[in-house]
Every structure is written in C-alpha cells, then in structure tokens.
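Before surveying the methods themselves, let us examine one representative protein, pairing a chain with its fold in token form.
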Amino acid sequence: MYQQISFIEPEPPPRPPVALPAALPDDPTAIVVSVSGGLDSAACALWARTRWPDRPLILWHAHLAEMDWQHTDDQLRGMAEMLGNCHLISVQAIYALNGEITPSGANGTTLRELHVVRDGDHWFGPARAEAYSDNTILTLLDFARKARNGQPPTSKLRWCTSYFKARACDVWLRENRDILGEWPLLLSGERHAESPSRSKLPQAAWRFGTKQWDVLWYRPIIDWPWHQVVQASVDSGIPIHPGYALQGETIAAMTDPTRNERGRARLSCVCCIFSQQHHIATALRNAPEVVGPAVHAIQQYEQTTGYSWQQRGTLLPELKEGTPCVIHG
C-alpha cells in the first residue's frame, strides 16, 4: 500500500537537467499514467497498455473533493479492469494557511498532506473536514475563499491544476521514489489541439529537471485529434465516463472528424471553469441529483464573492436571482 504523506518537506534545490533520451525507453522501472476519467487520459492509458502489454501500470488520479463527478471512481476502476495489471491510486491534496502573504496579496498556503482516497481495492473516501482545523483547505472553492481573496482560477492562472493536480503529482512521485525506481515514466494525455496554451507543449520533458533523480514525462497522444481519442476508447471497449452523455454528448458527435473539438464537453470537474454553460445546463436537467450540489455551491460562491467561477460568465444565471457577478481574469 502506498503511504499517506503528511507535512511535506521542502523540495531540494534544482540542478542542471540531464539530456532527454533520444527515444522513449523500452523498459522504464515504473509506468505511471495520470488519469482524470476523461477520454484523453483513457486514450493515454490505452496507448501505454498497447506499448507495454505485460507491464504493470499505475493509474494515478488527483481527486477533487466536491468537484469530481461521482462516476469517476467507477469509471477508473472499470478502465483498470479492462486494461489489466493496473493499480489505481487516487489522492486528494490538502492545504493549510501558513500565516504568510504572497507577493500578489493572497494568503500563503502549505501542502499539508496527500490524503489517499483510493489505493487499489481499498476505498478510504475523501478527507472529512471535521478531522482538520479551520485553516485547512480541502476543496477548490475553499482555496478560492481562504487563499485567493475569493478569486477563482483563470485561463492565465490555473491554480486549480497547479495546486491540486500538478503539485500533488510531484509530491507523490518524489515520496514514492523507492517504489518507482531509478527510471520511472509519467504519461499524460495533453494534446496540441485542445487549446492555444497547449499547442506548443513538448512531447517529452523531465518532470523536475534535476540530476539527482527525475521522471521522464511523456505525452504519447499529443498530436491525436479528438475523434481519434474517442474512437480509441470505443474500439477497445474501455468504458466512457457517463459525464459526457449527461452533458449531451453522443458517440456520433464525438467521433465526427469535422467537429471543432473545442466545443466538446469537459471532464474532470463537474463545473470546470472552461465548461460551456449549455453542457452544465444539460447535465443539470439530465441528472439534477448528480450535478445540482456542485452548481448550487458555485452559485453561492458567486453571490458571496461577486466573481464568476466560469470563464464564460455567471453560472446559469437564468436559474436564480442574485447580485450580478463579474468575470475575473
């Protein structure tokens, strides 16, 4: 079982990076696939299983408390079973206010621990607020309220990704160095066609840029179009997250090669800051018991702070009365 990490030590100072290998190594000591429940990460995991049919895979998920779709754990377990020889681990980043003020005027935070939500067949569940002090931060909305003066993530400052996914992954990788061995590989499903900000991402990079120990970070499907990503799951039988259908997506639409993929529904947050309003509204109509709590929480946040959580404006303003919100960023 992987260890739960508490009171993270400071990271070692960076050192000059070593050169990238000329080709992807055939025999990494460990293969970690970052998975969200979405189709991009499913295609990435499928690519890994095709490349290494007999090697164990670690499917690593950053659990976003109160924003993950309730179907995500089942979807990831189904994918792990379909691929075979996989170990699924989900972790939740837990922050605490440290009493400092950042240069931008926000409240400083420290990553207090990585709470293990799932480790293989063992489900521990999300961290419970009553087990922590008032200055502890368990959710994205709490982080916005307590650490960012109410301000949400934006396209230019995606702290939701950097704090709750990337940093959590970095810490987990380092803390499990003995398990991962000397030449581990991290795979993720970012693609050039997703957005302008991802259009220039490299296919391979060192995760940390240090000589003492590092992880080769590889994006195997970086040049795949969206319809190819979807078709890979369809052809393989890997389960497709129900969140897509709840948002109004169909297999025919998602595998249409002429479609503008930037209009697709998004995972993994129920109310991702980049989700289109009509997708959230459709999901709310289709499954109010699933989507309603997240929508209600976002609407309360918007009324309290005056900010819009969504990049496209106030979340479903036609469903409520309240103070108009401003778009931040």
